[in-house]
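re: ur question from earlier - yeah i can do the single chain one, its not a big deal. heres the input i used so u can compare w yours
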Amino acid sequence: MPVDPQQAPAGLTDEELATLDAHWRAANYLAVGQIYLMDNPLLTEPLRPEHVKPRLLGHWGTSPGLNLVHTHLNRVIKARDLDALCIWGPGHGGPAVLANSWLEGSYTETYPDITRDAHGMGRLFKQFSFPGGVPSHVAPETPGSIHEGGELGYALSHAYGAALDNPGLVVACVIGDGEAETGPLAASWHSDKFLDPVDDGAVLPILHLNGYKIANPTVLARLPEAELDDLLKGYGHDPIHVTGDEPAAVHRAMAAAMDTALDRIAAIQRAAREEGATERPRWPVIVLRTPKGWTGPAEVDGLPVEGTWRAHQVPLAAVRDNPEHLRQLEAWLRSYRPAELFDEHGVPRPEVLACVPSGTRRLGATPHANGGLLLRELPLPPLEKYAVEVDKPGATLHEPTRVLGELLEDVMAATAGRRDFRLVGPDETASNRLQAVYAASGKAWQARTLDVDEHLDRHGRVMEILSEHTCQGWLEGYLLTGRHGLFSCYEAFVHIVDSMVNQHIKWLRTTRRLPWRAPIASLNYLLTSHVWRQDHNGFSHQDPGFVDHILNKSPEAVRVYFPPDANTLLSVADHALRSRDYVNVVVAGKQPCFDWLSMEQAKVHCARGAGVWDWAGTEDGSREPDVVLACAGDVPTQEVLAAAQLLRRHLPELAVRVVNVVDIARLMPSEEHPHGMTDFEYDGLFTTDKPVIFAYHGYPWLIHRLSYRRTGHRHLHVRGYKEIGTTTTPFDMVVSNDLDRYRLVMDVIDRVPGLAVRAAAVRQRMEDVRLRHHAYIREHGVDLPEVADWSWDG
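and the output i got, formated as tokens:
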């Protein structure tokens, strides 16, 4: 619905209009200056080619619209004393957000050398997209930002994540019409079905339709208004339209739209919080239609620019070489009348700053955009409460994730009052055996419920939606605003967020170099329903490669763990939930698994990251082992121990060392990863010249890549997932990929000098069992009894 300014809740006076327009013009001037100028910031002399940067980079097209939104957010924040945060979806509109941060003073407070005067303005201009400067998009360096603008699609899910459990916060979210075409953004519109008007804050989406992407029109901008309204109403929103290109009229309409939207938000929250309303509300959304590159050059070289795709980046590209372009640039800059906006020292005039709020109400100074300032320690209980009893290794079985679920239940209960912990996942909490959490919190849900539904709760803090993108975006927004959480996902499908986690890791790496950014809680993944126990779902559900992707990233920010049983999973989870500024990936099974270590042993082993299980091997300390059996992952650990047992039985004279690796980065050199071993440590554990048969959970070449520089690498032989899978029995999965116990024994015989002849009969027996296995499963549909009923008897 369009807003009639004459009917608006709080129409602008002429004086207010003048101050808003002055602020907007100042922000536009500063945005253009950042793209073009490296000297003469106030145009105190005629513009010359040497005042212009040699490389012109940046995005002008979206900047005037973002400046308009920022200006009007300032007005309502100040007038209503709002606690607000803004997510800038068109992230390459960095010049606009930087300009506004400089105007409000938060930029100078963060970077004191960028003063709020002519000198500082010059430095602000030069540093933009300049060697040694700042990126062209809204980045970690930008005060007030929690959203990396380098990749599109995640603005709205980040906004909702920020609003969760922040009942006093209004999160504005500017969505560019290019970004609105992405799948993740489309799915995240459904977040309003999970937003609790009692315990959560509000999200105000602002769909900015300027009509074009880099070179093409945008889909939503070309829809008839009625069709677009139907789409937004179908998503559960009540649209408010602001359309125009005449500044005064647009200012009045935008002010009216903001007031209308915020009045409706206040009414929705009041009805839920004070009157007990439970019907799902229709939240407002502002649809802002202004020209791309508004107030910029209308035409360049005889071609239309303003209002077209040509305004997307740098409208005047040859300013240093083309006198006409230089003349147009100077005319463009002077059109904002900078002398009215800044005094002779370059300080913004009072009327420019009249709409700007103060202190932490400023968008660039809100602590919600520096969430580590608000972060509290998570109340984690002692692990002994959940530990499984292990009198001897391999005597009992537990489902590791079910045991972890009991810990998470208590964490959820302990945070019930403070509401700063959430569990997210794509419809898999119960499937992943974490359903104990429902005793402490149900699943967030604001839509219709039926009698057959279970665990749905308007105030729940378990979040499930069948969109990994949305889960990731929610959790990132939640963490970046100072809270804690865990993302549980099937291992094969966490790949859907490969690109998103990449952006988050880059964010973390950058913030580590910004002393003003306080550390935030780590982004924790629990990957289960993994490759070796997806025998029922088949090949499409079998992919352990997410850890390869993660370990390509900044070593200071990534950690990968393979706990082999329930107690080690508890220890690793406790560490991950306590950590800061990491992405932790924990891979653990949900199926019954042997218990190998007591809680005390698990803590020591996990702290070490990799170590010898002396109870599993046959070395006696009098000499070096003949062979090392290494493992990482729950199923590979079981197969290695079964192989060690076979070797003990058939080749008792062989000195076998068993090494289990929980922290996979321990294999890397210490100079390449903070958790890496020194060569001295590695050689002591794996030897320098003995065969190492390594059974690994994922793709074998990762182990080779991590350890290729080690002295004994040529003796390393890795078994793992070889992209061979189907619907079959659990043991057939390991046999098909040559990770089974019999194949491992054969590898030992093949690689220990002298065994090939001496143990030929043993090798033949191992091969015979594998052949018998293939025939047995095809006749009976289950694994061989000696495999299905195996237990450790060491």
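The CA atoms of residues 254 and 646 lie 76 Å apart. not sure if urs matches, ping me
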